[in-house]
Amino acid sequence: MGTLTSSSFSTVNLKLCSDLIGKDFRDRTKLKKWKKQSALCFSYKGGISKREVCNFSKIRCFSVNNNNNNNHHNDSEKDVVDNGSDSESGDKYSNLKAALSEEKEERSSTEFGSDKAQASVSSRPPTISPVGPAYNNFQVDSFKLMELLGPEKVDPADVKLIKDKLFGYSTFWVTKEEPFGDLGEGILFLGNLRGNREDVFAKLLSRLAEATGDKYNLFMVEEPNSEAPDPRGGPRVSFGLLRKEVSEPGPTTLWQYVIALLLFLLTTGSSVELGIASQINRLPPEVVKYFTDPNAVEPPDMELLFPFVDSALPLAYGVLGILLFHELGHFLAAFPKKVKLSIPFCIPNITLGSFGAITQFKSIIPDRSTKVDISLAGPFAGAALSFSMFAVGLLLSSNPVAAGDLVQVPSMLFQGSLLLGLISRAILGYAALHASTVSIHPLVIAGWCGLTTTAFNMLPVGCLDGGRAVQGAFGKGALVGFGLTTYTLLGLGVLGGPLSLPWGIYVLICQRAPEKPCLNDVTEVGTWRKAAVTAAIFLVALTLLPVWDELAEELGIGLVSTF
Hints:
- By secondary structure, the chain is α+β, with helices and mostly antiparallel strands.
- It has helices at 18-24, 28-38, 69-83, 89-92, 94-110, 115-121, 137-149, 156-165, 197-212, 244-247, 254-277, 285-292, 309-334, 368-397, 418-428, 430-433, 442-457, 465-474, 476-492, 500-511, 527-544, 549-555; strands at residues 7-17, 40-42, 54-64, 172-180, 186-193, 216-222, 237-243, 345-349, 353-358, 407-410, 437-440.
- Among the domains are: 150-247, no CATH class; 254-295 and 304-555, no CATH class.
- The strands form 4 sheets. Strands 4-5-7-6 form a 4-stranded antiparallel β-sheet. A 3-stranded antiparallel β-sheet has the order 1-3-2. A two-stranded antiparallel sheet has the order 8-9.
């Protein structure tokens, strides 16, 4: 069978007289045979009638190139000539024969330089050329650049080796492969589990080390878009393969150390500023007016604040101490698990002294339990120290011996937190809080700021401590639901009061992405870890929930009539 590989087109002007048409083309059988054998397509422009003495018609011809394209064309030409071999053929078909001869010569001269190429192409299977290129040159260059700059993909030879060495009837039967990773640089093996998932995963890790050494990391994750759970219980699992240099975070660079140092210095300054602001009843009037009056434009002489720096240092030390204790909890929990952490990047804030710090994982977390433990260790350590300062400060505030160290703050500040306001009301009493100002020890301010900062960091969103804990305890799907609820409450100002907007912007810019999966991202954590995370989220909501005026009046938290 002939193969359509190329077509050549030409337009032939034939001058036909009415007698020629009436006599020789009256036989429709010959006309059909001529059209079939010569593979010519007729396109008549203008009618052809016997009554017309002479008429012009354009015939668009194309020849089909196959394995015997030249012979086929010659046979077609010969057949056309034979059809006109009657007594009058010599004169009547001279124009047609001349046109076909001219077409053949033109086609031969055009295809002379490509005869070899067509001869080689004619033996190939049929191919259909697209109307236009699928991608333009710019897109192709972009794809090549992305491949060069993107992460290195898994070697196909290693994929075949890993399938032969790792998977099988006794471990995991692979039925399908899909891209894995942020940019599809890895391979995700889907199939059927042949045993206990933890035992199978341990065997696969051992075989992977024997087959490829320290070249790849193997992840056990939930099968995406799984329609049914695993028959043995729990979700269906799949295994993802990534290169070690792609999956593991890079080391801390020199510039990151420099940035961390600068942020720490700024956080120290914001903590000292908080200590100075806590002495608002002692500051010069022009300084107080500048910081409290929104219409004040001209800044006061900052040298007036120097005498208050020494008295502000204890509060600054308390805020920085809570921050240091928080980060120390993370490192103490990560060290036994052999999980590396980055240097903390402190976030300064003039209202609380600090918004906490960003601490990144510098190695892959082995399992979800480890993720929960490390995530909770920092907030629990920081909250323990903060609550200790807060409680001791409240006790000192009601002690006449420490009256000289007390500072005056507006009672409305205690309406910023339902939980902390109730605790303050229980220790200081109704009369103390139901006034325009309250005398408290600086430790109360340090503890309050530390608990508020810890609560903000325990919100279940992104890669905050709370987001990591929820992701490890309940899975990534639960984190999505918690995150949407948290963003909604922050946007409405329900949580955090006036700090909800700056904190929400900070999270969206720096902490919105969830943490990457663990090596074993399937095995669930124990019940007590889930209970600890749930209790922590509940306390966070009570800490960040402000007290509205009606409830504050009933509870005796602040003097509402003064507002």
